Amino acid sequence: MERILIIEDELNFLEVLEMYFKGKGYLVDAATTGEEAVPKLKDADVVVSDIKLPGEIDGISILERVKTMYPEVPVILITAYASVKDAVRALKLGAEDYIIKPFDLEKLEVVVKKALEAYSLRREVEELRKELERIYQEQNFIAKSPGMNKVMDIVRRVAPQDVNVLIVGESGTGKSLLARIIHGLSPRKSRNFVSINCAAIPETLLESELFGFEKGSFTGAHTRKRGLFEIAQGGTIFLDEISNMSPMMQVKLLNAIQEKKIRRVGGEVEVNVDVRIITATNRDIEKMVERGEFREDLFYRLDVVRIEIPPLRERKEDIPLLAQHFVDFYSRKFGKKILGIEKNAMKILENYNWPGNVRELENIIERAVALEDGEYITEESLPEKIAHFKEIKEGFNLEKYIEEEMKRYLKSAYMRAGKNKKKAAELLGITYRSFKYYWKKYNL
């Protein structure tokens, strides 16, 4: 039940308003002065106040206090004195409405209902905003598929536990992002998160990047440099593409994990390190262990908890959410007002197999937003390899597929040509006679 706070110094009129709204099922608080009303503002869903009130706090002051303390709560001002100046001032300060006495109670009820509906909508929007902020801050992963719900359940359970985590998944699935989420939900979140791609650093440099080096340890080492293990002290270090690490570096990493100590390149003193290690790979690391390409003892040190991220083609329920997220992001970045994705374009995105996973989807949407001039992403904004992709499954009918494509192109050309068939035929590079033949054949 919504609670109305009515502030009115005319006792008879106040009683009438109280009785009326209580009879309509509302909870009603009443006050005859602004001073009496102030403590009751915190419980109100809507405030109805006379502008002229005894004391120092009048209706305008009540409005200003509400907008300062409870900005979402609507305020309706009533007065016996019609003043355009007062009305304009009230609306500028954020009043929901301004009503002049005398008025029908039914009219006031309509205004109250509209104000409460707007208040309810604002609260829903605010709650949604807070929920989205919570998701971005605590999870930062956009997904609703069963596969990703399972992943996030493991993340929530393992993040507070100080154990090493191995994340496996195809390129572009979001392994680095997931590592950051684990760190952000862990007791180490106030300390550094550092990451390195082991495949992107030459073997000769990887050791100095991880463990640092002493001055003069090699040509160009003019000063002492701390490695990532020291920089991550008390925090988390993320080693991406760990399967690309050389056998020699595997030995040194294993020693650092076991002893919780590292030695800078060219150094003699061991440095104690306290870090959580999260690793990731897009390869079958267990088969690498079987073939002797990756140390078994290191593998078991890293694979305490394994999280497998499913490829995007196996969680197509997430595509609309991700696509809309990227549309919103790049619309803001490019200063555009693109609202969403047309139904046909979304269907194309959902049917594609996404070998590049989420990273590929983001690139496609970025391109589409950059090219689109309208309010919605259309199929014309998508690359041909996406628009014309057709996954071949059991029961695939080539003739039917070709027929559907023919229909699509005929209709598209017809619309682009302003419903002129001769121009449409020219756009398609066929004769007018052929166009009419196919138009009739497909009953368009």
Short description:
The protein is α/β, with parallel strands linked by helices. The chain has helices at residues 11-23, 34-37, 59-69, 84-92, 105-139, 146-158, 175-184, 203-211, 228-231, 247-259, 285-290, 296-302, 318-334, 343-351, 357-371, 384-387, 398-416, 421-428, 432-441, and strands at residues 3-7, 27-31, 46-50, 75-79, 97-100, 165-168, 193-197, 212-213, 225-226, 236-240, 261-263, 270-272, 276-281, 305-308, 340-341, 376-377. The strands form five sheets. Strands 2-1-3-4-5 form a five-stranded parallel β-sheet, with helices on both faces.
Top keywords for this entry?
alpha/beta, Rossmann fold, five-stranded parallel beta sheet
Protein described:
The protein is of the alpha/beta class. The chain folds into four domains: 3-127, 3-Layer(aba) Sandwich (Rossmann fold); 146-310, Rossmann fold; 312-391, Helicase, Ruva Protein, domain 3 (Orthogonal Bundle), CATH 1.10.8; 397-444. It has helices spanning 11-23, 34-37, 59-69, 84-92, 105-139, 146-158, 175-184, 203-211, 228-231, 247-259, 285-290, 296-302, 318-334, 343-351, 357-371, 384-387, 398-416, 421-428, 432-441, and strands at residues 3-7, 27-31, 46-50, 75-79, 97-100, 165-168, 193-197, 212-213, 225-226, 236-240, 261-263, 270-272, 276-281, 305-308, 340-341, 376-377. The strands form five sheets. It has a five-stranded parallel β-sheet with strand order 2-1-3-4-5, sandwiched between helices. Strands 7-10-13-6-14 form a five-stranded parallel β-sheet. A two-stranded antiparallel sheet has the order 8-9. Helix 1 links the parallel strand 1 and strand 2. Helix 13 (318-334) crosses helix 15 (357-371) and helix 18 (421-428) packs across helix 19. It is flat. Residues 135-139 have low confidence and may be disordered.
